[in-house]
Amino acid sequence: MRDAASTSDEKTVVIGAGQSGFSFCARLRELGYLGDITLIGDEHHAPYQRPPLSKAYLLGDISLDRLLLRPSEFYPDQRIELKTDMRATGIEPDNKTVTFGNGTRLSYDKLILATGSTPRTLPPGLSGGLDGIYYMRSIADADAIAPEFRSGRCGLVVGGGYIGLEAAAVAARRGVKTVLIEAAERILQRVACSQTSDYFRDLHRAHGVDIRENVGLEALHGKNGSVSSATLSDGTLLDIDFVIAGIGILPNADLAAAAGLDCENGITVDATCTTSDPDILAIGDCACFPRNGVQLRLESVGNAIDQGQLAASTVMGSDEPYRAKPWFWSDQYDTKLQIAGLSTGFDSIIVRQGKEASCSHWYFAGDDLLAVDAMNDPRAYMVAKRLIEAGKSPPAHAVSDINLDLKDLLKA
Length: 412
Ligand code: FAD
What we know:
Radius of gyration: 23 Å
Structural class: alpha/beta
Strand content: 25-35%
Number of strands: 26
CATH architecture of the largest domain: 3-Layer(bba) Sandwich
Oligomer: single chain
Low-confidence stretches: none
Bound molecules: flavin-adenine dinucleotide
Distance between the termini: 36 Å
Helix content: 10-25%
CATH topology of the largest domain: FAD/NAD(P)-binding domain
Mean pLDDT: 95
Number of helices: 11
Shape: globular
């Protein structure tokens, strides 16, 4: 790494005051960067964690201040100039300048794009400008949904991915009569094996959620400007009070693309998080990075934190490559799902049944362990994560042997 003292008159600007932008700024100071750091976000709040928005915060179990990644004094203490309610509208790479809607211009030596992603929306023909249709990305979204979660209401959740399932779990716990539809053959089809889908389908049905797979949304109908019923692709007409759509996200790459940076499925970066412009880096949900010969985007807190930290090292002169160590979690009712690794390309699943409702699903490609879904089984998650990160694969028969202490797998 270069001498930190040499950076004292430099300016680093970060667009996007979310998980990865915060992680970058905090680490850059930790590494001894002496220049100016400006962190700009278009939301009203200081950087906060999003996972509780569809879990404990939506349920009303935690307050807004517990979402914040750091208290407000952190930013002046660390000489990080935090500007909220401010949206970047353009980048001029030749002048090394960022422009804002109000005409403000800000120059930079290094620019970090940490712009995150935006929920996919229902086609305008379906939603028709009706009230009562919600998405789930920000505090504002969660605050808008929360009043709908009252006993006796009827909610339709569109999409059986993690966000949709978590929203359905909170709705059901709040006494909402909840129907969840998934257009694919099964919930979680894009991200998990059929055993994991089965586990969560059973869990939701046991809590009264009406899960319907292979069923899409055909039309929404309204009364007095608000959604009042839905026609499903199988012809069913449902009376509903509101809709939550959890149908995936799109990386926020428009600014980068308009500035002429290479973009494909997000903002293209190399292993040091550097874009096609050597003075602009991209991190978090919006960054598409190389892993095992393919470009990939990850939408997770772990990736946002780690890429933020790596990009800070890059700005300080390191050329260390990013080595993603994917992990993820989801909370639904009393089940904590923890995922280690990436399951893409698996050809077999070993099920390890734990005590009561705990179990884990181990994804293999040939003899190689790729990933694990652990349901209420933190030990399986911890062991699997360590094995995957060390590039080690236990024999399948050992994994399924419930008499074997999982920690023994780490000794091999
Ligand atoms: P963000 O945290 O989204 O931050 C990007 C910020 O940039 C936003 O504030 C955005 O408004 C701002 N911005 C965008 N464009 C501009 C602009 N032009 N000017 C100024 N500001 C701009 N991950 C997990 O690992 N586990 C979970 O259980 C989990 N649950 C989740 C639940 C929900 C409801 C959501 C929405 C996400 C969840 N995630 C979870 C994903 C995780 O929160 C994201 O992957 C992570 O926040 C990505 O960080 P980021 O910095 O890339 O983006």
